[in-house]
């Protein structure tokens, strides 16, 4: 197995950490460290994840949640570490990944329609200069219908509400037909209806054995939707089941002070 080309050190040995029985993890992050000049954003993070799971990445502001996703996808360089999916560097298989960045990183004034945005999700499969195939058009239609946005297909993306915009980006991710889905703070600035649709879609994806990673900062009721959690505070505080991660000690280590969370969450 190889390390990703962005990393200075390679860690070819794969260790199975958390999963029960003999099930090998599909995605492994090994000793991942990221610096922004002098700022150590992430230090030595290792997690093992299984397909078919909805994984929440939690931690306080500045904990390195977005950094983790971006470094996993090779969007920013890591100082060290390796990220493998099914035994190969994840960055060499980005056509199997759908990534929706934080809404603050998207230019919502860009003059494109809803349909254009969703079809852009197909360019990795079809190439920029290929005509979109009937398969791509069918997948885009199905994705827009799934998130309840087909009737808006000719609208400019700038003319939608925050929740509608997030649903369009969810549709784009669905149209990609990826195996690994990464969403960075998808619930920011959205309505309850959109949040419900998003969790429904995430759960459907896990039933199709996809791996769904969601950066989230809300330790409220919605945390019960996640199969597993990764709790960060510049390094890994804990990962695994809600019961394992949501202990007062771990929350204290991540957030400091006394953290009260939804009582049935664990
Ligand atoms: N491009 C950058 N240049 C310099 N420092 C950065 C950059 N991006 C992030 N950082 C710093 O790295 C650390 C981790 O940031 P990151 O955005 O990953 O945290 P986060 O957990 O996603 O935070 P939030 O919940 O506020 O989005 C923070 O201290 C942040 O200020």
UniProtKB/TrEMBL annotation:
* GO MF entry, a single one: ATP hydrolysis activity
Q: Which UniProt keywords apply?
A: ATP-binding, Nucleotide-binding, Transport
Which Pfam family, giving just one, matches this sequence?
ABC_tran
Question: Mind telling me which residue stretches traverse the membrane in this protein?
Answer: none
Stretches assigned to the ABC transporter domain:
27-259
Among InterPro entries, the record links this protein to: AAA+_ATPase, ABC_transporter-like_ATP-bd, ABC_transporter-like_CS, Metal_Ion_Import_ABC, P-loop_NTPase
The similarity comment for this entry is:
Belongs to the ABC transporter superfamily.
Descriptive protein name:
ABC transporter ATP-binding protein
Ranked from the top, the taxonomy reads: Bacteria, Bacillati, Cyanobacteriota, Cyanophyceae, Leptolyngbyales
């Amino acid at each position: 197995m190889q390390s990703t080309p962005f990393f200075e050190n390679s860690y070819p040995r794969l260790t199975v950490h958390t999963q029960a029985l003999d099930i090998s993890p599909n995605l492994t992050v090994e000793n991942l460290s990221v610096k922004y000049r002098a700022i150590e954003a992430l230090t030595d993070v290792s997690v093992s994840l299984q397909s078919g799971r909805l994984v929440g990445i939690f931690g306080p502001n500045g904990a390195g949640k977005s950094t983790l996703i971006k470094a996993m996808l090779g969007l920013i360089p890591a100082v060290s570490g390796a990220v493998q999916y099914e035994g190969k560097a994840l960055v060499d298989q980005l056509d199997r990944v759908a990534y929706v960045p934080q809404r603050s990183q998207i230019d919502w004034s860009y003059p494109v329609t809803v349909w254009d945005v969703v079809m852009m999700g197909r360019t990795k499969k079809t190439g920029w200069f290929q005509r979109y195939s009937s398969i791509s058009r069918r997948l885009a239609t199905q994705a827009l219908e799934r998130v309840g946005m087909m009737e808006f297909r000719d609208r400019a993306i700038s003319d939608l509400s925050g929740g509608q915009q997030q649903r369009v980006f969810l549709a784009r991710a669905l149209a990609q037909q990826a195996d690994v889905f990464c969403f960075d703070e998808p619930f920011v600035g959205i309505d309850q209806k959109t949040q419900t649709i998003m969790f429904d879609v995430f759960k459907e994806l896990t039933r199709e054995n996809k791996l769904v990673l969601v950066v989230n900062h809300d330790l409220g009721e919605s945390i019960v939707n996640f199969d597993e959690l990764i709790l960060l505070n510049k390094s890994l505080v804990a990962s695994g089941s809600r019961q394992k991660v949501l202990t007062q000690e771990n929350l204290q280590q991540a957030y400091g002070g006394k953290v009260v969370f939804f009582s049935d969450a664990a």
